[in-house]
Each structure stands twice: as structure tokens, then as C-alpha cells.
Amino acid sequence: MQVERDEIYGIAGESSSGKTSFIKVLAAAIRPPLRVVGGSVEYNFAGQRIDSTKASEAEIKAIRWRHLSYIMQGSMSVLNPVRRIEKTFGDFARSPLGLDCRAFRERIEEHLDHLKLPKSVLRAYPHELSGGMRQRVTIGLATVCRPEFMIADEPTTALDVVVQKDVLSLLRNVQKEMGASIVFVTHDMSVHANIADRIGIIYAGRLVEEGPTRTLFTEPKHPYTAHLVASLPVIGDTRPRPSLEGRPPSLADPPQGCRFHPRCPLAIDRCKREVPPLETVGTRHRSACWRAQEVEPLVRPEATVAGAGA
Amino acid sequence: MSALLHVDGVSKYFAMGGLLSRTQTAAVRDANFRLEQGTPEIFTIVGESGSGKTTLARMILGLETPTEGEIRYKGNPISGLSFGAARRAFMTDVQPVFQNPFEAFNPLKRVDRYIESTAKVFRGITARADLDAAMDEALASVGLSLAEVRGRYPHELSGGQLQRAAIARALVCKPKVLIADEPVSMVDASLRMAIVNLLRTLRDDLGVSVIYITHDLATAYYISDRIMIMQKGRVVEMGAARQVLDDPQHPYSRLLKASVLSVTDAGQGNLEPARDLMEASRTALEHADASRLVEQGEGRLVRMAG
Ligand SMILES: Nc1ncnc2c1ncn2[C@@H]1O[C@H](COP(=O)(O)OP(=O)(O)OP(=O)(O)O)[C@@H](O)[C@H]1O
Ligand SMILES: Nc1ncnc2c1ncn2[C@@H]1O[C@H](COP(=O)(O)OP(=O)(O)O)[C@@H](O)[C@H]1O
Ligand code: SF4
Ligand SMILES: [Mg+2]
Ligand SMILES: [Mg+2]
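Above: inputs. Below: predicted complex with magnesium ion.
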């Protein structure tokens, strides 16, 4: 896959489909037992090319936070519980920014102000902040050095709807203003619907469909995507929603052929034997399905809109 | 009609801070509602983080004592059911399912052993064949089977399977009431619907009343009979779920609805916060001390000034 400048690329897929493993590779956070067995990830940071799968520790350190930042799953895992927020900012951003103490402090305070966080959070310990504030702080850490590329793993999953919307809009505004790229991972399709420019769907460790956000919601060309977007209930609509039967396959011993075939309503014999390639099915739209052209949306979007207005 | 569960004027205050700077958090203030016997329903509680949902659930389960008010189960105060056989009978009838299935299960204990010990303790079943039959029945009603689960540890099941196993553990008691505290917030869209559809089946086929606690208004709309919306410990609106969510009256209920991310305009990047509603909701909260729930007819209650 390719991620453009100034673009939010959403990655969706069910739990244990490999989202986190994949973006750890993108983020150059590759630690045993995780190991890259093939392929490459090439970044172009203002003309400077770097492959996150092969770069040395020192090369990664030089781009970390300044060019490439990573918001890990669960904000608490980045925020050290026994360190005040200001110390954590120092740990992350002091050396990449290369500012003296005063200038650094000013820069951080200005940045927090921009994220609508009071200065007082700098003196706080993580547990003294609400979930929403912690998530803003994490976004603050990831954006303070104005990186060109950000990777965010489920950054809003634990938040309630009001705070979630606020945090998402903040993240998007910061991204637009910096012209940065974001790879945004979540299993929540309604989040993707509102933040992603394009979406990639992962199933059992493979990218099975990719396309502009609107296209994936209205004209999915992979049965798994069709299922994902149809399973979302909508306020105002009580029609039964399908749930996907079966379980995610074991990645240690995945099904032969198309990995979705044991759960796929369109599966034919060929699907059990041959792996479908990821092929172009429309404008910037790719799908890995032998029957891509026959996939229909499971819930008519018009009907949903009408229902929601009732 | 007689009440199955009656939450009667219940408040809970927690003391916060050191001995000198003691302040009180009102986790729940004057909550009132009842579930009737013989009419199983899905009663949903929604509200932001920290609004008191879990505290209320814990009080209903008898894990926390109300500071004020009383909770009665079939007419008996549950505070009087704290020991022995009465306690066990109550716990058999009222069963919890928690938010994070990975935390609810001990990682070192086999999932089937959990269900088995629940069957032993609460149903008093001892014979091997009877235990297996009870477990298999409970697992079958959540779309699993004993064969699939036997011998497995929590990490060997997917999140959705584990959450269904957690529900099966509760069902092995043949409860009258299931209290599900954010049972779907950890699971993805496809499994979410499997679990939500399951709660509906429990109501319709097994006659179980479900107290469904969630942030997710869309699933609440989809399955609930009644809904109760909480803001900072106070009930701000309550009534028939569809009625309330189609046309919320309290500013906070409106804010909640307006904050739900819509998929109908996918790709439009519609993230503009509803500033006017945030403001109105904040104002309502500031004046909440001088407010009360006002009856609107058909069991609908809305908190208003005065
Ligand atoms: N044991 C406790 N000691 C002190 N304060 C508590 C305790 N339990 C809860 N609280 C406080 O009571 C309020 C309500 O908490 P509760 O956990 O019930 O909310 P909630 O709606 O379930 O939130 P969430 O969605 O985050 O789980 C919060 O302000 C919380 O900090
Ligand atoms: N440290 C690890 N050791 C062994 N297996 C792992 C490790 N981390 C992840 N996996 C496995 O890799 C697969 C993908 O996991 P993950 O990337 O965490 O998925 P997701 O983020 O989509 O939930 C799963 O089968 C998981 O069990
Ligand atoms: S290739 Fe076959 S099994 Fe796979 S998604 Fe397409 S139709 Fe279904
Ligand atoms: Mg993950
Ligand atoms: Mg809670």
C-alpha cells in the first residue's frame, strides 16, 4: 500500500487480524518475537529515503518524533505512571526539537494551549487526568515535533462518544494544519467513516480491500467489507443487522486459498484453492476477491438515510 | 404488577482525597427505576465516563452499599441478602457480565472450569453428566459449545468468544436479570452485533431482563425497550428508548446523540463538535442542584429547572 502526503489512511480489521503487528513494522517498532521476513517499508522524508524494516537503531532515532511518530494502543502505555507529564514531554521531544530549556517550555505550553489543554497538566501525573485528557496529551506528544508521518493505534477506542468526537476532530485539525500523513488504526468503522480519506481492510493478516472512504461504504467490493459496513446499527433504524458467523481464523494455520472462504457467503470452489490477488476494481480501489464484481452492499444506503431521518 | 428489581432513591457518595481535604464525589444521585416481574426487558443505561453507571451496577449487584436509598429484589432489600443462602439465591438470579472479558477471566484458569464452578456454587449441581449438560446448554444459547470451550484458557479464545463465554457463565445460573456493563466496547463491529443480538434473544426466548450499560447509542437504539441517560451521577432523561433517542429533550441527551459518529455521510469528515449543545449541557449541569425530573407522560421523564 501507499500513503500519500496530507492523507489519513484508515486501517480496519477484526481483533487479532494483524493491525498492530503491521503498524509496528511501519513504525519501526520491531522487537522480537516480531520479525520481518520479507518486503520493505519505504518512507520519503523531505527527500531523505529510509526503510523502516532495515534501518539501524541510530537511523530510526534520527527520524523518531521529528518525522515519524507513533501513538500506541492504550495511551497509558506511553505515559509513564510515575512521571509527571512535563517530564514525559522532555523525554520525548527535548532532543529532537533541540531547543534550550526556556524555549522548549514555551513551545510545549503553546502546543498544549493549541490542544485546549491547561498548562497545569504539565505538573500532573497521568492518573490524575481523565481518559480524554490523557488521550489529548498523547496526541500532544505525537505532534509537538510536527512530524510528517503519524501512526495511531486505536487512539479513541476507550473514550465516550462526546470526548471521542472531540479528540478525533483535534487530531484531524492538527494533521491538516501540518499537512502530515496519518495511518489510523481502529476496528470502529464509524470512526473511519468520519476521519479517513482512504481505508484499507485487513482480514487474517492480509490487505483484502482498499479504497476511498465513501466508496468502501457505498460500493464495497469484498464480501468482508460489505459485511463490516452493514453490521453497523444506526439510530432511527431497527432493521435486523447481520452478525458474522464463525471466528477469525488462526494465523498459525490459516485456511487455504482465500482466507475468508470458511465464513464467506459468496465462496465457490475456487476460493478454497486459489489465493485471490489484490486487483484494481475501480478508481483507487482494489479488492482481493474472485467474485469482486458480484459483491453487493448488504444494506441499501438510501434506506439507511431515510430510516435515520424518520 | 410487582417489581422484580426496584432502585428506590439511591445515591452513592465516595470520599476523595486526604483526611484534611476531604471532598465527596456523588457517583450516583437519587436514582429511581423499577423492572417488573413477568415483563422481561432490555433496560439501557448510557452516559459519559464517570457518570456513575458502573457504580449503579455494582450497587445492584450488592458489591457496593448505597449511601442513601434502597434497592429491593422481589420486595426484599438486597442489603439484607448479604450472607448465606439468601445471598446465594440473589446472586443466582442477578448475574453480571463485565466490560473486558480478558480481565474478567483469570488467565491461568480454564474457561470451562469457571463456568463449571459457577454451576456448582449457584445451581448446586455436582454430578459430572449434569454439570456438562448445564454448561453445554448455557454455551449453546450463546452460539458456542462445550466441545469448543473445554480445556481452553482465556487467551486461546478470541475476544468475542470470550465475551460470549462470560455471558454463558452468567446464564448457567439461569438468572432473571443480567447486568452487562459495556459488554461490547472491546469488540469489533461484527462480533458486537453477535453479542447485541444475543442479548435480545435472551430477553425474547429465555425471559431474562437485561440491564445494558453502554456508550453506544446506536446499539442501544437497536435493542433497548427503555433507556436511562445519566450525567455526572444524575438521571437526566428516561423513557421508551426509541422515543427518547428519536427526540431527546435534555441538553445532555441531545449532545450525546449529536456526538454519535454517523456513517451515512461516510467520507465527508463530519467531526464538527456541537458547541451549542456542549454549552447548553454544561449550563444544565451547573444548575442541576435546582432541577428535578418532570413527568412527560408515557413514563417519560426529563430533568428540568425548578
Ligand atoms: N471506589 C471509588 N472511590 C472513589 N471514587 C469512585 C470510586 N468508584 C467510582 N468513583 C467515582 O465515581 C464516579 C462514577 O464512577 P463510575 O465508575 O461508576 O462511572 P462510569 O459511568 O462507569 O464510567 P466509565 O464509563 O468510565 O466506566 C467517578 O467520578 C469516579 O471517579
Ligand atoms: N508478541 C507476540 N508474540 C506472538 N504472537 C503475537 C504477538 N503479538 C501479536 N501476535 C499475534 O499476531 C496476530 C495479530 O495480532 P495483532 O497485531 O495484535 O492484531 P490486532 O491489533 O489486529 O488485534 C495475532 O494472532 C496475535 O496473537
Ligand atoms: S475470494 Fe471467494 S471466499 Fe474469498 S471473499 Fe471472494 S468470494 Fe469470498
Ligand atoms: Mg491491536
Ligand atoms: Mg464503567
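Chain B has twelve helices and twelve strands.
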